[in-house]
Amino acid sequence: MDIKQLKFLVALDETRHFGQAAARCHVTQPTLSMRLRNLEDELGLELVLRGQRFEGFTEAGQRVLAWARSLLAAEDGLYAEAAACRGQLVGTLRLGVVPLAGFDPMRLISHFASEHPNLRFQLFALSSEQILERLGRNQLDLGLSYLERLDREHFASLELAETRMGLLHDRRHFNLSQERLNWEDLIDLPLGLLSSGMHFRQSIDHSFRSRGLAPQPRLETDAVHQLLQAVGAGLCCAVMPLDSGFTGLNEHLALTPIEDAHTLAPLGLILRRSSPPSALAEACFSAALQWRQEQLPNNR
User: Fold this and answer.
1) Alpha-carbon gap, residue 264 to 248, rounded angstroms
2) Which fold has domain 89-162+266-299?
3) What residues contact residue 42 under an 8 Å CB cut-off, 6+ apart?
4) Cα 68 from Cα 87, distance rounded (Å)
C-alpha cells in the first residue's frame, strides 16, 4: 500500500467518475483502476462497486475511505508541522463556512494570508452539523459556524459576531420606504428562505413563531446564489445577514434592517482539540485570536 492509492480512492469519491479521478491524479484511467484493484487485493476487500461505470463504494469501501482521508490529512499535517519547525507555515487551510454567515470570512482569510503568505485556502459551504462532523474526522482545519450546543471538551472556539438580519429586496420590484421593518411587516411579502433545518432558517422560524406568525415562503432553497437570483428577478424578498455585502452585488438591491432580528447563537471560529494537532489550524486560530483582540477597540 502507498499514499497514491489512497489519493486515488479519495479522488474517485470526490469525482464519482473513473476518468475524472484519473485526470485529477494525473494518471491514465487504466492505471488508476489497476492501482485500486491492487489495494483491494492487498486488503482482501472489495471497495468499489463497478459496472459499466462507477456505481459507488461497498460498506467496507466507505470505512476504508474514512481511514484514507484521515491518513491523507495526517500526511498534509506532517509536512505542515515540518515546515512550522523550520519557521515556515505552508500548506492548504481547509475552512468550512455556514451559508449566510453574518461575518465575511474573507476578512479572516486576508489576515491569515498576510500573516502567512505561503498558505493556500479551500472553502467549503456546509451546515453547522457537517462542519463539526468534518472537524472531528480531520477533514477540515477550522470551521466558521454557530456556537450553539458546542462541545467545549472537543472543540475550542472564538466568538466573532452576532448575526443580525435584514430584508434584501430589489427596488425595481418592491417599494419598501421604511428605514426599519418589524417581523409583522414581512408576513404578507413573498419570501425566499433557506431550507428548513439550516441554522439561519431556524432562527428566522423562531422569530416568526415567537410572535404568533406563520409565513408561507414562496421559495425555499439550500443555495444562497439561488436566493439572490430570485430576489433579483423580483420573485421574492429574502431575510439576509446585515453584514453580508450582498447589496454591493447590484445597484438595485437594498437591505433593510429588521427590529430584534438575529440568529439564535453567535458565530465563531471553531478548532478541533483532539490529536493529532494541526500546525496550520493552530497557527491560524492564534492569528484570529490576535486579530479579534485588535478589532475590539474599534467595536466599542
Assistant:
1) 26
2) D-Maltodextrin-Binding Protein; domain 2 (3.40.190)
3) 1
4) 29
The two domains 89-162+266-299 and 164-262 share their CATH topology (first three levels equal): yes
Phi, psi values for residue 143, rounded to 5° = -130, 140
Distances from the Cα of 68 to the Cαs of 5, 15, 42, 80, 204, in angstroms?
A: 9, 16, 15, 18, 39
Q: How far is CA 159 from the centre of its chain?
A: 17
What dotted CATH number matches 164-262? Answer: 3.40.190.290
- pLDDT tens-digit readout, 77-115: 777 777 767 766 777 889 999 887 777 888 889 999 988
pLDDT tens-digit readout, 3-49: 999 999 999 998 999 999 999 999 999 999 999 999 999 999 999 99
Q: Note whether 91 and 120 are within 8 A (CB).
A: yes
Q: Find out whether 98 and 126 touch, Cβ atoms under 8 Å.
A: yes
Say what the pLDDT of residue 107 is. 86
Whose CA is closest to 181, among 163, 162, 201, 164?
164
| Helix ranges restricted to H, the chain | 3-15, 18-24, 29-43, 59-85, 105-115, 128-136, 183-186, 199-209, 224-232, 279-299
Its pTM stands at 0.67
Angle in degrees, CA 106, 228, 164, rounded to 5: 60
Grid coordinates of 268: 465563531
The domain 3-68 is classified under which CATH number: 3.40.50.150, 1.10.10.10, 1.10.3720.10, 1.10.1660.10? 1.10.10.10
Distance set, CA 108 to CA 9, 141, 286 (Å): 32, 14, 12
